[in-house]
Write a structure and sequence with these properties.
With about 375 residues, the chain is an alpha/beta fold. Helices cover about 40% and strands about 15% of the residues. The protein has a seven-stranded mixed sheet, sandwiched between helices. It has a five-stranded mixed sheet with strand order 8-9-12-11-10. The longest helix is centred in the last third of the chain and has 20 residues. The structure holds pyridoxal-5'-phosphate. The site of pyridoxal-5'-phosphate has 15 residues, from helix 4 and helix 5. Pyridoxal-5'-phosphate binds next to helix 4 and helix 5.
């Protein structure tokens, strides 16, 4: 079945023939001799014992995400960060090395710097678009390569299949945070990645009203990660799972509209006299446009641009917007606008931001599903006034 159908239909365990998956608000389940035996036999994942282990609503979401990402199984978490932390802690121990890049979510960077380092894990930051740098850095101690498939805010595109080849030759796993792409615009597992991680708080939830995370991979890896999830405790709540399931029913049409609107707005901005530069993978002017066409089904809903002037001019522009709202986060139905310098990248110095390519006056637009012309009119009048 195609993704549009997979999004709409739940593959849950049928009770009373209900069309939607109900929220199973139970912390525990009755025990039987059969269940005791399954637990003893190590078949915990198949057994309903306790909701941190397994819940029918959450399980339905996990199965749906596994189908959408073309993986064998999935495990849901209380947040994207719980999913990412558990991914690291499943594969990395003292003395191991992780290769990643500075182009990662601030929360992930903070986790690596403040927690994983303290556990004796070596972290090396490379340029995620440079296969040469990865080849030079990888060693026998490297156990994981972790990148975001579309980065924030520079929207760098990762060549998943090439990096997967390097990782597998050296016996390490490739994990991809695919939050920006969603399973509609890219399927990293099909390109050779071993693990795909999502913050469900963005496009999957899609309405800026939920926090959640999910990991999709092989049965074997998910079984390992599920055991860690039980120990560290970052399970998803069934009410959360229900709302994400409901959101995913419209994921395919929302993403189509995000893609369409973002492209139209990127083109509009590229021709605007008050805009210095536009970054969007769907623009022919974009440096990685050819790779983007190869690895993405759609170019996504995020557009980054630089207004003429400096950060002050950027702030002035944002505060004149009426339809677009100034807020962190992304992936909701409404257009959100923010500046990396005082949000996602505020933990860096001016010098570090400059080195990374985060320029003065840089704006990140998470384009929503509103009428595109209304958004353009809003941006146009804010740029001119
Ligand atoms: C938001 C985000 C996260 C963190 O997810 P939470 O659900 O907020 O914990 C991780 N990676 C990326 C790319 C994100 O955008």
């Amino acid at each position: 079945m195609k993704k549009g159908t997979l999004c709409v239909h739940d593959d849950g365990e049928e009770v009373f023939g209900s069309i939607t998956t109900p929220i199973y608000l139970t912390s525990t389940y009755t025990l039987t001799d059969e269940k005791y035996k399954k637990i003893l036999d190590g078949k915990n994942r198949e057994t309903y014992v306790y909701t941190r282990w397994k819940n029918p609503t959450t399980r339905t979401l996990e199965k749906k995400m596994a189908l959408l990402e073309n993986g064998e199984d999935a495990v849901a978490f209380s947040s994207g960060m719980a999913a990412i932390a558990t991914t690291f802690l499943t594969f990395l121990k003292k003395g191991d090395e992780l290769i990643t890049s500075m182009d990662i979510y601030g929360g992930t960077f903070s986790l690596l710097q403040n927690e994983l380092r303290q556990h004796g894990i070596k972290i090396t930051y490379v340029e995620c678009t440079s296969l040469d740098e990865i080849l030079e850095t990888i060693s026998d101690k490297t156990k994981m390569i972790f990148f975001e498939s579309i980065t924030n805010p520079l929207l760098k595109i990762i060549d998943v299949s090439q990096i997967a080849k390097i990782a597998h030759e050296r016996g390490c796993v490739l994990a991809i945070d695919s939050t920006f792409a969603t399973p509609i615009n890219q399927n990293p597992l099909e390109q050779g990645a071993d693990i795909v991680v999502h913050s469900a708080s963005k496009y999957l939830g899609g309405h800026s009203d939920i926090i959640g995370g999910i990991v999709v991979s092989s049965k074997e890896i998910i079984e390992k990660m599920w055991k860690k999830m039980i120990r560290y405790g970052g399970c998803m709540d069934p009410q959360q799972a229900y709302r994400i399931l409901r959101s995913i029913k419209t994921l395919h049409i929302r993403i189509e509209r995000h893609n369409e609107n973002a492209l139209a707005i990127a083109q509009f901005l590229e021709n605007h006299e008050k805009v210095e530069k536009v970054t969007y993978p769907g623009l022919p002017s974009y440096s990685q446009h050819e790779l983007a066409k190869k690895v993405l089904y759609g170019f996504g809903g995020v557009v980054t641009f630089i207004v003429n002037g400096n950060d002050e001019d950027g702030l002035k522009f944002m505060r004149k917007l009426k339809v677009c709202k100034e807020a962190a986060s992304l992936g909701g139905v409404e257009t959100l606008v923010s500046m990396p310098f005082n949000t996602s990248h505020s933990y860096l110095t001016d010098e570090e931001r400059k080195k990374m390519g985060i320029r003065k006056g840089m704006i990140r637009l998470s384009v929503g599903i509103e009428n595109a012309e209304d958004i353009m009119r809003d941006i146009h009048s804010a740029l001119l006034s």
